[in-house]
UniProtKB/TrEMBL annotation:
Xref: PROSITE patterns: HTH_MERR_1, HTH_MERR_2
One family name in Pfam for this protein: MerR_1
An annotated Gene Ontology molecular function: DNA-binding transcription factor activity
Residue ranges the record marks as coiled coil: 95-122
Limits of the HTH merR-type domain: 1-69
Protein name (Swiss-Prot/TrEMBL): MerR family transcriptional regulator
SMART domains: HTH_MERR (SM00422)
Keyword annotations of the record: Coiled coil, DNA-binding
InterPro entries reported in the protein's UniProt record: DNA-bd_dom_put_sf, MerR-type_HTH_dom, MerR_fam
């Protein structure tokens, strides 16, 4: 599929997809005869991983490290048990980091909801005064 369809499916802008290509996070699987980028379902899945990592505050280098580990595990090359375990351990580290970041976001959301409630209560107390003017 072409980049426009990928952008629509991933909800990423064309510019963002090109940026991820420039940084080496994702590469089009092919190019059309006219030079258009062509992507596969695997490319879309890779972009979705990136899209999910970004709001959690992962850096491009961290994204690259996770994708590199998953790429090696998914490759058809033979890995030693030690190599395979090291890659799995790296992914487990990312899983733990994600869990912590999700918990931090839940805490932030709770605080934001409490703040919104405080503002609503303040406005509700002031409403009768404003009505008398």
């Amino acid at each position: 599929m072409q980049i426009g369809e990928v952008a629509a499916r991933t909800e990423l802008s064309l510019r963002t997809i090109r940026h991820y290509e420039d940084t080496g996070l994702v590469m089009p699987s092919a190019r059309s005869q006219g030079g258009f980028r062509l992507y596969t379902e695997a490319d879309v899945a890779r972009l979705m991983v990136i899209r999910r990592m970004k709001p959690l505050g992962f850096t491009l280098d961290e994204m690259r490290a996770l994708l590199g580990a998953t790429d090696r595990l998914d490759a058809r090359e033979e890995l030693s048990p030690a190599e395979r375990e090291e890659l799995l351990e790296r992914i487990r580290g990312f899983e733990q980091a994600v869990e912590q970041r999700v918990e931090d976001l839940r805490t932030q959301l709770t605080r934001a909801e409490e703040f919104a409630d405080t503002l609503r209560a303040r406005l509700a107390r002031q409403a009768p005064l404003g009505a008398m003017r």
